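User: quick one - fold this with nicotinamide-adenine-dinucleotide bound?
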Amino acid sequence: MKHITVIGLGYVGLVTAASIAKLGHYVIGVGRDKKKIEKLKKSIIPFYEPGLKELVKLTQKSKRLSFTTHLPLAISKSEIIFIAVGTPSGLRGEADLSQVKTVAKQIGELINGYKVIGNKSTVPVGTGNLVYKIIEREVKKRAKDFNFDVVSNPEFLREGRAIDDFMHPDRMVIGDSNKKARAIMKELYQSFHCPFLVTDLETAELIKYASNAMLATQISFINSLAHICEKVGADISRVAWGMKLDQRIGKNAFLKAGVGYGGSCFPKDVLALIQIGKKVGFNFGILKEVEKINQDQRNHLLGKLKRLIPDLRNKIIGIWGLSFKPETDDLREAPSLTVISRLIKEGALVQVFDPVAMNKARLLLKEKQIIRKVKYCLNPYGAAKDAWLVLILTEWQQFKKVDWEKVRKAMRYPHIIDGRNMYEPKAMAKLGFNYMSVGR
Ligand code: NAD
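Assistant: Sure. C-alpha cells for the protein plus nicotinamide-adenine-dinucleotide:
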C-alpha cells in the first residue's frame, strides 16, 4: 500500500483522495482553508457530489483518509504527491497556472527524498517540465540533491458521477519520461482494468485538452444543426440518433442539442487550447467558432423568449435548474447565470428552483448584486407560480416527474422553453402547453 498526498480538495482533489483511499492506499488530503479542513474531518463535504460524503466517511473510518492544512507532514510521509488545484482561465483565456506554480514551489521547499509528483490538474503542454524546474530550483536552493519525477496523470471524471468515473475510467493516461515513476503509477492503479496509455509528458497533457475540446465541438456542432432543424421542420434528436448509428461517430457521441455547454472544464479548456495553439503560431479557428456558437446558443434561447414576451418589465419568468448540469451544484459558467442576468437587466421578475444549487446561486448572484431581484423557490411549482413563461436550463430527473396539471394551473400563461429537450413536444402540446425546445 502506498502513502499519497493530494493537494487541493475541490471536485477533483477530494474525489481523487477518497477514491484512492478506497483502493486501499493511505491518503492525506491537503487544503489551505482551515475551516474547510475542520469540516472535512467531520465528513462535511463543501459541494454536492453523489456518494462522496459516504465514501469520505468510510475511508476516514478505516483510517486510510485524513485531512490537514499542514503540507510538510503530508509530503514527508508520501511517495506520490498529486497536484489537483484549480487552473482557471486567465485574462486572455490562457490557463492561469499560479496555483500550480505555488504548489510546485512548496513541494520543492519540502521534499525529503524520492517522490513522484502526479499532476491531475488540467494544464497546458509544457507545464510538467515547468513544475519539474520549479521543484529542482527550490531543492537546489536548499543545497539538497533529492531525486523526483513529474508525471502527467490527467483526470477525466465528470461531476455528478465522479466516483464511478474515477473508479472505472475509460482509460488511464500516464505521461512521464522515467521508468521508475511509471512503475509506481501503474502499481497505484493496478486494480484498474482499463487501457493504460503511457506517453511522454506533452502528449498526456494534450490528450486532456483535446478530449474536452472535441466534446465541446460535438455540442456546438449539434447545436448548429439544431438551427437548421428549426428552419426546415426536422427533429434534432432523431438526426443525432441517425448519426450515432454510424460506428465511426458512435452511440455515445456527445450529440445532445440544448442551451450549450457550461461548467468548470469545457469553456476554460476550449479557450486554453486556442491559446496553446496561438503560442505555437497556430490559429485554432474551429475552436474559436465552437466557443462563439456556445455563447450564441444562450442568446438564441433568449431570442425565443423575447419573441413571445417582447417587453419583459415586471413579467415573472420561472427558471428550473441552475447548475450547469444535473447531479452537481457547480455553477461555474452555468448558462443559468447568463440567462438570469439578462432577464433581470430587461426588468423581468425571476423565480428560480434547483434541487441542490440554490445556496451556491444565492452567493454568486449576491456577488453580481442581483440577489434581491431573484426569488428562490422551494420547488418547481413555486418557480412556475404566476409565471409568464418557464425556462428549463438543467435536466434534473426531478423535472421529469412534475405534475403538469399543477404546473399549468400555477402559471399565468402556459409557455415553456425547454433548453434541454427533456420532453416530447407532442405530449406537451397535448397537456396544454405552448412548448418550445431546441431543434425540434
Ligand atoms: P476546484 O476549484 O474545485 O478545486 C481546486 C482546489 O484547490 C480548491 O479547493 C483550492 O482551494 C485548492 N487549492 C489551490 N491552491 C492550493 C494550495 N496551495 N494548497 C492547497 N489547496 C489549494 O477545481 P476542480 O474542479 O477540482 O479542478 C481542479 C483541476 O482539475 C483543474 O485543473 C480542472 O481543470 C481539472 N479537472 C476538473 C474536472 C471537474 O469536473 N471539475 C474534471 C477533470 C479535470
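One thing worth noting: The pocket of nicotinamide-adenine-dinucleotide is lined by residues 7-13, 30-32, 84-87, 99, 102-103, 120-122, 155, 157, 159, 264-265 (CB under 6 Å).
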